Each structure stands twice: as structure tokens, then as C-alpha cells.
Amino acid sequence: MRRPYEKLRNYVLGWGVSRSNGMRGMRGFMGISLRRIKVSQGVLSILPVIIILIFIRFYPMVMAIYRSFTNWNGLYRSDWIGLDNYVKIFTNSPFWTLLRNSLVLLTTVPLQLMIGIFVAVLLYEEVKGWRFFRTIIYLPQIIAAVTIGYLFRVAFSLDGPVNLVIRRMSLDFLAIEWLGNTATALGVLVFCLTWFSIGWQAIVILGGMSKISPDVFEAAKMDGANFWQRTFYVVIPMISRTIEYAVIMSMVWTLTSIFAFIYTITAGGPGYETSTIDYMIYTKFYQAGAPYGFASALAVILLIIILTITVVEMRYTNKVSEWE
Amino acid sequence: MLSKFNQKLSAVLIFLVLLVLSISNLYPLFYMFMNSIKSRTDYFINPFSVWDLILTWDNYLTMISQFKILNLFKNSFIISFFTIILLLSIGVVASYAFSKLNFKGKNILYLLVISTMFIPVQATIIPLYVFFSRLHLVNTYWSVVFIYVGMFIPEVILLMTSGFRGIPDELIEAAKLDGAGYFNILRYVIVPMGRPAIILCVIFYYIVTWNDLFTPMILLQSMDRRTVMVALAALLSRYSGDPTFQFAGLVLASIPAILVYAIFQRYIIMGISLGSTK
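Output (C-alpha cells, whole complex):
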């Protein structure tokens, strides 16, 4: 196992010196220096991560914050213009439409959660074939958002399957252009995101439920609690930490990771009617004149929204668990 | 008697509800596949039809010969592959340090690393694009790989650290007494014992990187570097397109991820229920 050059390498790198036989007896009085070697081992181990994070996450984030106060175009124009970008965003841009859309799409979180808890409770009963059902229920998460988005666009197009079914039921007045107007297009997005996320919610909740002792359920059953009572008075209170985690994650996900769905279903249109903040950053990236300073300001606002959600939510839920 | 009957009844009801849900998840995929092997006329007559059709693999052949989808597969695969290699090599070492070594500032560093999870990639993409174009890295696989590593490393560390914490300290001490150094401890103790977390990371981030659209769409604009999702998204955005042809492309692009899921679904379900990844 040991190779001749290993000793030299250990000496050069300062790794694993404590293992060489000559040093073992000295552990006592060389405690300090050995601890220092351990320090460098730990720090060296996480050094690659720190470097990657500095270049890929911290540096661009700081740059985005700084450039949001300039009229940057990605090249050499980068004059300090103070809060102009922010003023423009709040007064003369579709920002409020984007915010409204994000709020509408956030309504999927409680929807997903309720259906997810329901499905998890059903899976928990372990009826015949539940493992198979569990696999299939999680399946949408494996399919690319591009694929799901396109399926929804085809389904809700003017002559798509949904309208075909509606027409066959001779409800022609309902066979509208779903993606052509704001309200129904947002409705389709809400439907799509909910359908996509049920599996994730169900599996996360099921994971939380598996930590509850089965005796609790037995006791509840003995006391004559029915299905709904067990769900509301036993399951939900006992997995509040899991629910908290699921809510934070899906809120952040809804605000940041649904680009591909919007791109394939509505392309943010008509106009900016179904765009969200992250989608507008993307459109600004390709816009003529490269308004990167403006886009950076949007990015900063998105960042602040997400930080607020996570901090507020963690504070709030911590308080709740203190009251209990 | 009655309660037993009730139990049977509720089991049947639950089974039926789960069945309906499963069908609602499977039918879109079936619809997509059926229509991808139909002729265009059959599709426009009735997209739901299943029987009495003239089936054809033409769409798939065109996808391979004209659209060069296998070339796109290669691009996607290279990016996923190097992302995973980097995530693992950096992640295992760092998670070992976070879970088993003691050093000053460990907890605060851990918190800092994990909290970068919440920085949305859209917030950093423009400075990153400009940064990479100065380094002449735009339109290379590495640009996307580096961003993926930065994006996913906190989750990987979260997952692996919690996995590695379960490894008994005695094993590491015993290995040390046997003369194992840093790398041998990783090789003979941490990696074999922490295998579930490592396998989960490989599978999960293979699927995530394969399916991702945003980052490669911004950074890979040249035709011969695009990933399969970027190319398909461009194809789909032409509204006048031929749906049966596009379905064929989407079916092909879904196969690698579904295949991996079919084989390793136990690990993925386990990982999600541990509550560490989204």
C-alpha cells in the first residue's frame, strides 16, 4: 500500500505526517504542531470549494450588485448612475406585472403541498403496488422541463387535445385560445407547475412521515380517528419541519427555476404578461443595446426577494416551534 | 367483520386514486410516444388514435440524420460527465473535512457554503458571461461545467456531509493506526462507507444537468456545442413546426434520464426523502 515516495510527498504537502512511525511516539509533546497539521488538512480540503464558489458565485453576485448602479453594457461603458436603474424598474417597466405573475405562480406552492400531503398519506398506507406508484408519481421530475412545457403548449393550443375534448363534449364556447390571454395562460402555468411538483412534494412528505413512529398512527386509529382527522391532527403537526423545508424550497424554486417552463409554454407572452423576473433578465440579455446594468438591478431585486423569503420563513417557523 | 370490510374497501379506494394519479403521469408520455411514430396526417385527423395506424420511424431517422441528435447527445453527455467528476472530487474531499475533521471556523464556513445554494443563477449569469468571454471560455463545455459545479456543490456537500457523518469515527481511527494517510482514509473508508450518498449525487446531478436549459442556452450559442435541450428548445420555439417530428426529438432526449431513473430510482427516492435536494 505504501510507496517509497510517499514519505517525501507527505513531507512536502504536510499531509498525514502523524502516521509515519517515527512521529507516533511524539504525539504527546508535539501536540501543538500536530494540531496545526490537522488545521491545514481541513482547510486544504475545502479550498477547492471555496475557490470555485468565490469565482462562480460571490464574484458575479458582487459584480451584479455593483453594476446595478451603472449603465453597463457588458463592454466598456459602465458609468455610475446611482439608483436610476431601480427608479426605472419601479416606475417605467413591466416590473409590477412580473411581480404579479410571480405571486400568482406562488399559489402553486400551497396547492402542491396539499395534494402532495394527500398523496403521501395514501402512499403511507402501503396498499398493493405502492412502490410502483411511488416511482411513477415522482416520474415528472425526471422528464426535462422542455419536454413537459412543450406537451402543455401542444395540449392547450387552439386545436390541441384539450380543446378537442371540449369540442367533442359540445362545449364549444370553452374551446378558447388558452395561451392567448393572460388569465388562462397563467392558469395553464399554474396547472403545469403543480402537476410537475406533486411527486416531489409527496416523496419529501413521505420521507418526513417515515420518521414518525407507527405507534402514533396505531394509537390514533384506536382512538377512532378517521382518515382526515389522522391527516390533520397527527401527520401535519408531526412533520412541521418537513413542511417548512418543502415550502421554502418550492417557493425559491418557483421564483428561480421555472425558466424552461415559461420559455416553452408561453415564451413570457403575450408581451410580458406571463414573464417573471428571472425571465426578464433573460430577455434583457439578448436585447439590443445590452442593458446589462438594468438587468443587474433586476437580479439584485430577485436576490433580495429570495433572501427575504428564506430569512422571514426561517424566523417565523422557529418562533412557531418555540411556542409549542 | 365490518371493520375488516372497511379496511379492504379503503385499500381498494386508495389503490384506485393512486392508479388514476399514475395514469395522469404516464399518459402524456404515452401520447408523446404514440404521436411520434404516427404519420403527420394521422396526427392531424386524431391525436388520440391508437389503433389502425400506419406506424413509421421516419421522424426518428430524420432526428438522427438531419437534426444530428446524437451529436447533441454527445455534447450533453460530456457536460454531465465532467460536472459529475468535478462535483465528486471536490465534494468528497470537502464533505470529509466538514464531517470528520476539526478546524477553526468550520461551522461558519459550512454555513457560508450551504447558503450560496440560494443565489439564483439568473442573478449571476450576466457577470459570469462577461467574465467567461474575457477568458475565451464562452461556447466551450467548461463554461457550463464550471457554473454547474458552482451551482450544485453546496447541495452535494449538504448531502454527502450528512451521509459521511454516519461513518463511525472508530473506523477512521483504526485506519490511521494501520498507517493510512489522508488519501488512503478517503479511498478505503470514506468512499466505500459513504457510497449511497455518492451514488445518489452521480445519478441526481446526471439527470439535473442533462435536463437543464438556462445555463447552456446562455453560454453555448454555437451550433456544434449546443446541448440537446438547447437545440430542442430552439426547434420547439418555431411555432409552425411539425409536432410529430418534435415529439420524436423529445422522446429521444427523455430516454437517457428515464433509463437512469428506471435503474436507480431507489437511490433517488431515498435521497429526496432525506430532504436534501431539489
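Confidence is low (pLDDT under 50) at residues 1-31 of chain A.
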